[in-house]
Amino acid sequence: MTYRLLTVSKLGAAGLVLGLTLAASLSGCFTERRNEGAQLYATHCANCHGEQGQGLKRLIPPVAASSYVAEHRTELPCLIRQGMRGEVVVNGVAYNQVMPGHDDLTDSQITNLLNFVQQNWGNKNQPYTIREASELLGHCNGSDGQ
Amino acid sequence: MKISFLRSVGHLLLIIAVVSASLTLPSCTQKPTAEAHLPYLGEPEVVASAGGAAPDTVPYTVPSFTLTNQDSQTITNQTFAGKVYVTDFFFATCPSICPKMQSELLRVYEQFKGNPKVLFLSHTIDPAHDSIPVLRDYAERLGIKDASRWHFATAPHDTIFALARAYMTAAQVDKGVVGGYAHSGTFALIDSHRRIRGLYDGMEKAEVDRLIKELPELLKEEANAQATAAK
């Protein structure tokens, strides 16, 4: 609940950053992994899906406030791992583009990436544990156990 | 004696000349420098002048081309006569930089869509896949309904890659890259005389902002040149 409140406003985000800096300087317990999801999104997803997850017109579907992200929760780890092609309907609009797969991400990176998306930009879906993501990745022989 | 008198008169004249020049020159030179002039990019060509005078240089120009756009229409340099245009290289299934690049070019298009003097030309570097229906679908999905304003064009592979070099955009087949092609997201700004007047990294917002700022400068220059020619 508090997490959700923090993420909904920019003030909250600024507070989170401030808090993280403080925490990191105090103990070093929190590493960069704390916002690994956001960083992975910026590196691997933002070029196509947009810096705010908004997508691009009718070419690239949004991941922000996305019906697909909510409805296909259990398929998403394999979708990141293997990519996808063919028509897909998101928020009532049909898209048809090629999405590349990601052999270069570990199970835990996929977990953090998906949790970032599932909890941001109007998505309020249940996060994954690394164990759950690895299990779901097993469905497509996509788990690297890391 | 006579000589020294003449000399001092000569000095005086020189001083007067320098002083008056320094007084009048600023008013003369300010006019041309006040109008920022976009550069001519590319290797200039040296041409022999008539009558044995020193050879002249002319700015680099884009070569002649024949392409086909998303409406199956043939487009050539003549299509862009009297216009300025922005060009880039992409392919429809490009999963790496193209969506970002095309969304940035779309930002430029949105700024100038009310001005028919500004055209856009995107070349596919994957003509084997990007057939005309694929290009039409891509353009429509991007929200471009008027092909005469933003051409999504195809041509034989070698033609496209030669043009990419001509527009100073790196594009090459690279199986090691996701999607199979390595290319830069360069936007080139071309004037009505086929000269390259600006190159911008389409992946950088600041660079695209520079294009949005410089495009009206080129339009102003073109309008002035037209007004002068009409006199």
Automatic annotation (TrEMBL), chain A:
The lineage of its organism: Bacteria, Pseudomonadati, Bacteroidota, Cytophagia, Cytophagales. It comes from the Bacteria. It holds the Pfam family Cytochrom_C. One of its GO terms (molecular function) is metal ion binding. PANTHER family: ALCOHOL DEHYDROGENASE CYTOCHROME C SUBUNIT, BLL4482 PROTEIN-RELATED. This is Cytochrome c. Residues 32-121 form the Cytochrome c domain. Keywords: Heme, Iron, Metal-binding.
TrEMBL record, chain B:
Disulfide bonds join C94-C98. Residues 56-220 form the Thioredoxin domain. It comes from the Bacteria. SUPFAM superfamilies: Thioredoxin-like (SSF52833). Keywords: Copper, Disulfide bond, Metal-binding, Signal. The keyword Nucleotidyltransferase does not apply. Cu cation binds at C94, C98, H183. InterPro entries: SCO1/SenC (IPR003782), Thioredoxin-like_sf (IPR036249), Thioredoxin_domain (IPR013766). GO terms for molecular function: metal ion binding. The keyword Signal applies. Gene3D superfamilies: Glutaredoxin. Residues 1-21 form the signal peptide. Belongs to the SCO1/2 family. PANTHER family: ELECTRON TRANSPORT PROTIN SCO1/SENC FAMILY MEMBER, LINALOOL DEHYDRATASE_ISOMERASE DOMAIN-CONTAINING PROTEIN. This is SCO family protein. It comes from Hymenobacter wooponensis. The lineage of its organism: Bacteria, Pseudomonadati, Bacteroidota, Cytophagia, Cytophagales.
